[in-house]
Automatic annotation (TrEMBL):
<feature type="domain" description="AB hydrolase-1">
    <location>
        <begin position="23"/>
        <end position="250"/>
    </location>
</feature>
<dbReference type="InterPro" id="IPR029058">
    <property type="entry name" value="AB_hydrolase_fold"/>
</dbReference>
<dbReference type="InterPro" id="IPR000073">
    <property type="entry name" value="AB_hydrolase_1"/>
</dbReference>
<keyword id="KW-0378">Hydrolase</keyword>
<protein>
    <submittedName>
        <fullName>Alpha/beta hydrolase</fullName>
    </submittedName>
</protein>
<dbReference type="Pfam" id="PF00561">
    <property type="entry name" value="Abhydrolase_1"/>
</dbReference>
<dbReference type="GO" id="GO:0016787">
    <property type="term" value="F:hydrolase activity"/>
</dbReference>
<dbReference type="InterPro" id="IPR050266">
    <property type="entry name" value="AB_hydrolase_sf"/>
</dbReference>
């Protein structure tokens, strides 16, 4: 597993595909790691350079103090990673937490980002602080062991939770989530208490795609529609039978939207 020291931390990452191709950088959700994008790696690494990485304090990356898990620091981590790998200007794609980062880079770093795609995400401050704060406190005290069912409900849509054909997906991520330590609560706190970037996004100079899961229990489609309405060059797509983890739950549909987005930005005819 390669690692890279940037911005005062060490990030675990994977870097596959042709090095001379346009890069796609994938930024994962809270409670997951970079492997949530395995379907995207399989789909795009033949024609693009595909980079996936774990956020500081999560996955295979270095632990981090709670004060360094805010969205601004995580966005600076992503920018430093892109620079260190010589991957810019890239398409950055983020699911949920990763989408917060993608939108910040779209607004702030057009030198590094040619487009952004935010899946199951929001450009706004958290609207469910009262609902999520007790969960954050439980995570900080005991990790995920007592609240794994609640986390699964937040992260997956109704169809995914009920579909017999998605049993392996559910079991894999339930096992992963159950083993997360109390430090995941620090990362969750930073997510819940993030600031809005709507004003910044209104001045973004790169194309922005927002993809919503039709069954997203955390960030329903109107939040993605707001992203598309706010960005000067924004577009929204809604994926049926998907919840918060769009890239994982309906990979073929998500990949179709991403492929069309990349091609349009790069002026490629399919």
């Amino acid at each position: 597993m390669p690692t890279l020291s940037v911005n005062g931390t060490t990030l675990a990452y994977d870097d596959v595909g042709p090095r001379d191709a346009t890069a796609l950088v994938f930024s994962h959700s809270l409670f997951f790691d970079r492997t949530m994008f395995r379907h995207q790696v399989e789909r795009f690494s033949r024609e693009y350079r595909v980079i996936t990485y774990d956020h500081r304090g999560q996955g295979g990356s270095a632990p981090s103090a709670a004060a360094s898990l805010d969205m601004e620091t995580l966005s600076e981590d992503a920018a430093a990673l892109i620079e260190a790998l010589g991957a810019g200007p890239c398409h950055i794609v983020g699911n949920s937490l990763g989408g917060f980062i993608a939108l910040r880079l779209a607004a702030r770093r057009p030198d590094l980002v040619r487009s952004a795609a935010a899946l199951g995400s929001s450009a706004e401050e958290e609207h469910k602080v009262a609902e999520f704060d007790p969960l954050v406190q439980e995570l900080r005290a005991n990790g995920t062991r007592n609240v794994v069912d609640a986390v699964m409900y937040i992260m997956l849509g109704d169809a995914t939770l009920a579909d017999p054909e998605k049993k392996e997906l559910r079991e894999h991520w339930r096992t992963y989530i159950e083993q997360l330590p109390p430090s995941i609560g620090d990362a969750a706190h930073a997510v819940v208490y993030r600031e809005s970037v709507l004003d910044e996004l209104s001045r973004a100079r790169v194309p922005v795609l927002a993809v919503a899961g039709e069954e997203d229990h955390a960030y329903p489609p109107p939040l993605s529609e707001r992203i598309a309405e706010t960005a000067p060059d924004g577009r929204c797509a809604v994926v049926p039978r998907a919840g918060h983890s769009v890239a994982l739950e309906q990979p073929d549909l998500a990949n179709g939207h991403l492929a069309a987005h990349f091609a349009a930005v790069d002026g490629v005819t399919r």
